[in-house]
Amino acid sequence: MDPSEPRNVLEVSGGSQWGSVSSSVARHPEVLVYLVNNSVIQISVDSLTSLTAGELARTVREALQLPDHAQEIFSLWLISPFLELQLKPKHLPYKLCRQWPDLLYRFTKCPVDDIVHDEPSLQFRKNVFFPKGKELQIEDEGILRLLYEEAKFNILEGRYPYDMEDCLRLGALACRIELGAFDQDQHSPAFIREKLDSFLPTHLCKKHGGFLAAFRPRGAKQHGYEEGLLESFRQLVDDAAREESEALKLHYRAYLEKCHLLLYYGSALFTGEIDKPVQSFLHRNGRKMVTIAISLDGVSVMDSKEKCVLLTLCFHELSWEYTSSEEEDTDDILWLEFDGEEGGAVVNKLLKIYSKQAELMSGMIDYCIDFNSAFETPLAQDTGAAKPPRPKGKRGKLKRQNSVVCNRIQQLSTIDYVEEGKEIKRVKPKRAASFFTRQLSQGPASYSAVEVTETLEQG
Prior knowledge:
By secondary structure, the protein is an alpha+beta fold. The chain has twelve helices and 15 strands. The strands form two sheets. Strands 6, 7, 8, 9, 10, 11, 12, 13, 14 and 15 form a ten-stranded antiparallel beta sheet that branches. A five-stranded mixed beta sheet has the order 2-1-5-3-4, with helices on both faces.
């Protein structure tokens, strides 16, 4: 991969280092490829240096006995705790491993000591550009199982924030898939409690206990989530006439369909920071670590610590621009513009995201829009259905709700403005200088707005 091509690099925060690609070339080197469930596929190759990701992925599919059309559903990734890259079929994994320190230096804030010692592993997982609308049409049980395991991993790790009531529903489906049909004698609260972190996100379960849990009287019953999980599990009733294989496929699809409600399902994840709102008369703010999720549907900004959504927008609801920093130690910036309210008036809001991956994020947005356009045009021709025109008016206003999956605009420090003729008027200025004043001194604002056209439907 040429690291100068931002669209070739799909960043995802988090992850684990389960193994490595050998840096030495033996006569018949062994390559280890990992699945999300930590199982490993060991492959013997003739030439490691010339082996492409496409050739290696084909060998993995054969080992897993997946049908040919799985090649568009899954890709090879290079994974480490600091960086995750989706590889194109033409890429050379060995070459990328040799370039890994350079990639870490360019796209992360990884300490020098970690850059020297970090080594990526190969993982076989979902292709970011496979539309989720096509997932539910899959009939192969092996493919559905891999998609389910990856979705479950992202739910449990908090990479896909979800409310507990929804996680209980997903956890019940996972219980049915992995434990079989509900058995009252076997599936007791004590049995489920020991396996709770296999079905529910650990960070949500920990929040339930909290600091005050230590002051409960000894012997007092501590109500956990196992009762709610068991009740949801009990309510899953299978058709007695349906074979187990068909029942499993039904539950795989149900799990995926529930995850599809999240805009950030199937996203590439990036890391960055945003300004915190001023919290006191001393005007102390600082920055907040965030995860930026970009999928074929849109862009989401999530609190990395609290595992909740701060902002989520479809592509037709936002405009964006990437600006590079002239100083090496200063982060680049991705600007997101969207509609909002301030004091009851409709305003445009501008969110400033600091990140060494800003260029990658801007390129990813461009690529997703181009991909949607290319994918949906032939789809409409095949179905013969006329696509309804998109509204040409203002973007929809964002709603504030009490849920981890809904926008928390009050927790964002944004630049607010309204347009009056050819001038841009700031609303309650929060900084001495801004993106717009800087741009206006050079001429009209040059950020690229997404044109709302009928080719930008969600994937």
